Amino acid sequence: MPVLSNERVSMTSKRKSIHGQWSSRLAFVLAATGSAVGLGNIWKFPYIAGENGGGAFVLVYLLCIAVIGIPIMMAEVMIGRRGRQSPINTMRTLAEEEHASGHWQWLGWAGVMAGFLILSYYSVIAGWALSYVFRTGSGLFTGLTADGVQSIFSNLVNDPERLLAWHTIFMVMTMVIVARGVRHGLEKAVKLLMPALFVILLVLVGYALNSSGFGQGVSFLFHPDFSKITANGLLIAMGHAFFTLSLGMGAIMVYGSYLPSGASIARTCIAVSLMDTLVALLAGLAIFPIVFANGLEPAAGPGLIFQTLPIAFGHMAYGSFFGMLFFVLLVFAAWSSSISLIEPAVAWLVENKGLSRVHASINAGIATWSFGLLTVLSFNRWSDVKLLSAIEIFKESTIFDLLDYLTANIMLPLGGLLIAIFAARKMSREATVEELGMGDRFFYPLWRFLVRYITPVAVSLVFLYALRDIRLIRTILGVIGIS
User: pTM for this structure?
Assistant: First the structure.
């Protein structure tokens, strides 16, 4: 590996972002936590924890966060701060400095594209949550049966004009913040949204604490049942540890480019990981007591939010108020994530096309909004369109299903894997030691060992597991004992 000269180290340490930087390490922690905390934290983590051993799964998940999530997050933040540019230009610059192939810039392009694609459909789903704030607050679900709630949800997703309206409103909300820049837009937003999100969560947990299902909800989440920890459960924990931190999509890399030079990357990433996990656990304590108190099905997945919980809110004392509060929580979680998804593209437009921040945000927003029309229509008028129906695993997949599969199962794991490879095998030891600032005795060698050997194998297994319906990969997983 090439060794950095003193001149070269000095040059990289003095590089500045033209977009500005976070005012403090806390601002970055709030922003990165906002990026990590999304719709999945509110329903997915509590559900998969309960189904895979409760407290035992939580312990395994925390171990996976330590071994997979934090090391890759440190690598992505380190690369971002080293380059101080959009992911595309950062990868191009660092590849040149390390005498690596110029093709590494495609890792930056993949991250920007992943964020663009995810936001295009994420905005549509966030629009559902936004509409439910008003539906729940108005008392629309009061006294309704399961069929009545299902009818309301079906009417929403089957109406492209209504979906388009909510999608448009949410995209405008997102781009208004992004257009204001790092300090006045992103930072101010997360300083408001994240504390508000925690307060709302605590209020909902306090409400759930007084429900008859609180003990059952706690048991569902935290009772350790090690017999349920299987090879599949381990891979689920590994996969969620990776995906929950928003790794591999350029968001953490571009946020890292705004991180002050004196901030500890290791401590910052650990803080983000702990806060992300805390939100997921609090969400479980808020949701599942209500589910059990009303005799509902806890394994309802995404339907739990829009079709199951409204039934409970409709039959609870003060259900309209607390239901509205819950959907405000969802909107805040989605909003804080959405601004990070589009930021890499906006940063690139400012750097490469000479656009102002406002014009770059408008262009990126319109492009993402337009692509989101595919998702809007895939729930109704184009629901019968199956672009890859000739391939067995995509036989029933709508356009939305394909976008979700492409980003979550292919682009993000590959992005995380390549980030680990570049950080540990292409960047010089001197450069990574300097940027991480952990010394060169115990913690740095531990991080380097994990990123060089452990995390690539773990992410590769997650990638193969996500593609397990493909015959060859199913055979490989069967050989190593994973069904």
Answer: 0.91
- Taking 3-state DSSP, the helix, strand and coil percentages for the chain, each rounded to the nearest 5, stand at 75, 0, 25
Q: For the chain, which ranges sit under pLDDT 50?
A: 1-12
Take residue 425 and report the two structure tokens written for it.
């095998």
Question: Residues for the chain: how many in total?
Answer: 483
The answer to whether 103 and 396 have CB atoms below 8 angstroms apart is: no
Domain ranges of the chain: 6-373+406-459
Q: What number of CA atoms fall less than 13 Å from residue 297's CA on the CB side?
A: 9
What is residue 222's predicted lDDT score, i.e. its pLDDT? 87
Contact call for residues 268 and 259 (beta carbons, < 8 A): yes
DSSP symbols for 140-168: TTTT--HHHHHHHHHHHHT-HHHHHHHHH
Q: How far apart are CA 95 and CA 256, in angstroms?
A: 17
Contact partners, residue 411, CB within 8 Å, separation at least 6: 110, 113, 114, 117, 248, 249
Choose which CATH entry (1.20.1300, 1.10.10, 1.10.287, 1.10.4160) describes domain 6-373+406-459: 1.10.4160
What single DSSP character describes residue 125?
H
Q: What is the pLDDT of residue 483?
A: 55
Tell me which long-range contacts 436-442 makes (C-beta under 8 A, separation of at least 24).
Answer: 436/74, 436/78, 436/265, 436/266, 437/264, 437/265, 438/264, 438/266
pLDDT at residue 3, rounded to an integer: 38
Beta strands in 10-161 (DSSP E): none
